[in-house]
Amino acid sequence: MMPKLYCNSKDQTQGSTQTAQSSQDNGPSMLTFAYYQRYFDVDTPQVKERLIWSFVPRPSRDTLTHYIRPSPDLYGPLWICVTLVFCVAIMGNIADYLHSGGEGQHWRYDFRKVSISASTIFSYALLLPLVLWLLLWWRRKEGDQAPLGFIEIVSLYGYSLAIYIPISVLLTIPFPFIQWTLVIVGAALSGSVLVFSLWPPLSASQRGIAVIILSAVLAFHFLLAAGLQLYFFRYSNDVVIVSNSGGTSHGHLRAVDSSTLDKVTELQPLSLIRAVEDYSPPDTTNAETTVAKTTTIGVDFPATAIINNTKTEQEIIKSIHIKNTTSDFAPNQTISKLLTKKLEESTTVA
Amino acid sequence: MDSIPSISKPINGEGKPEFNTLDEPIRLTIVRDLKAVGNKFFHVLYPRQQTSLLTEWDLWGPLILCTFMALLLQGRSDSTDHDGGPEFAEVFVIVWVGAMAVTINTKLLGGTISFFQSVCVLGYCLLPLSIALALCRIVLLLQQNTLFFVLRCGFSLTAFFWAVWAAIKFLGDSSPPRRKILAGYPIGLFYFVIAWLVVSLSNS
């Protein structure tokens, strides 16, 4: 087994600190298996320890120096990121299912969600440490203390994502207040661990720039949490029917469900189309499905109605908020009832 | 002289492979391979002794199970909008890339198992999940309500625990002593994702 060395991964500049390596200056080459085995050299108690201290901020003993630095590992970051990817995608689907009223079996595995969450999380866990490492390397002009290694920063960032896993489970609770509280608390805890760990190496030289860098680190951390919450767990079930004031006697009803731009519950626009089609008189209706999830349906309005009257247009937009369910029957009845009411009103107003 | 095993005599039956199998009828070859696969399926369902899956690994079983699951899990391709179910190839990717990732993880942690042995075990332990998938498909033929959904969840969960238990039983000894949980967690994650695919199968 590899002896534990008090060195970091920047082998090119730290060659003199390696003692028991081979005569090559890099140790095992990057093409061999043994090179990567060095970064998986952790035991279960160590991983548990690092997980706990990744979201419990302790100013006196920061996580990086005391827990990660002796042997930075890639096991934690890798499997935490993979777990977070699948957790966010699965919990997003569960939240979707609960939000749709728990009806039926329209609960699907959304591959697109997995790929989106995977790209976000992996790029956060790899690109930000890269940027940070490059910043530190560039600023390392004077001969100050040993700079941070890339793997150490990746390790730190990877472990700091650990708290988002239970948070993403709890984010299925559909109250925005609770969601935002969870996001803020989680990002604050793990962000503060990041800040405490990065402060000593950064503040060695100029404090001002260190403060700027650390606040950027914290901002990105919050951004990730907020982004995950907004993208996967926020549901606006409003159907906004916008009428186009084109000045002609033909109005267009365009049903745009903003929530389906993010989710894959395509049942909604289809049932919506069918509902509006059912309502509209057959000879004046042409329904066409255009790009992905918006549908343009042309309906002949009486000329006295909405077209040039923006106030009525606003009323219609405001007043038609239809709760989307994914069952086949409710949208028809709800939408056609509401549409009947609103269009009757519009003809009398103008 | 009697105690020394004779190595010049060709050994028939199970155990050592014969090297003149080109002459035998195809039926014999197929039956022998099918028996090996069936034997391994049996050992997955009732994991007692650990040796047969590991020493004589083969990938026929995982291929059969993977194809079966991918056929049942794929979403409908006739509708223009995305049905939401995984495509046939996506299931293959999940299963094989997932098994490879778990195997590489075990080896990086210092495990003493060979690559294909581990992939073989992980593939064969998909059997409970395949059975659950077939049962879920049958349940989906009936009119759906909450009870049937809970039933499907129950099938999937049972199959998940069974698969993880079987895989840990076979692979448990090969990881270093203080890293058993570290090696076992990705196995659990792998089967959890596949169990999720099984649960999210729908009729639409």
Notes on the protein architecture:
The complex is a heterodimer of chains A (350) and B (204). Chain A is of the alpha+beta class. Chain A has a domain at 47-52 and 72-234. Chain A has 12 helices and 4 strands. Chain A has a 4-stranded antiparallel β-sheet. In chain A, helix 4 (75-99) runs parallel beside helix 7 (164-170) and helix 10 (267-279) packs across helix 12 (330-349). The N and C termini of chain A lie far apart (84 Å). The model of chain B is unreliable at 5-13 (pLDDT under 50). In chain B, helix 4 (88-108) crosses helix 5 and helix 6 (127-140) runs antiparallel to helix 7 (146-171). Chain B has one domain (51-76, 84-203). Chain B is mainly alpha-helical. Chain B is globular. At the A-B interface, helix 1, helix 2 and helix 4 of A face helix 4 and helix 8 of B.
Q: Calculate the terminal CA-CA distance of chain B, rounded to whole Å.
A: 70 Å
Helix count from the secondary structure assignment of chain B: 8
Mean pLDDT of chain B: 82
| Separation of the first and last Cα atoms of chain A | 84 Å
Basic shape of chain A: globular
InterPro entries (chain B): Yip1/4-like, Yip1_dom
Keywords (chain B): Membrane, Transmembrane, Transmembrane helix
Family (chain B): Belongs to the YIP1 family.
GO biological process, one term (chain B): endoplasmic reticulum to Golgi vesicle-mediated transport
Question: How is this fold's topology laid out?
Answer:
The complex is a heterodimer of chains A (350) and B (204).
Chain A: H1 33-37, H2 44-52, H3 63-68, H4 75-99, H5 111-139, H6 150-160, H7 164-170, H8 176-202, H9 207-233, E1 239-243, E2 250-257, H10 267-279, E3 286-289, E4 295-300, H11 310-319, H12 330-349
Helix pairs in contact in A: 4-5, 4-6, 4-7, 5-6, 5-9, 8-9, 10-12
Chain B: H1 26-45, H2 51-55, H3 60-73, H4 88-108, H5 115-124, H6 127-140, H7 146-171, H8 180-199
GO molecular function (chain A): small GTPase binding
Biased composition (Low complexity) (chain A): 12-24
Region (Disordered) (chain A): 1-25
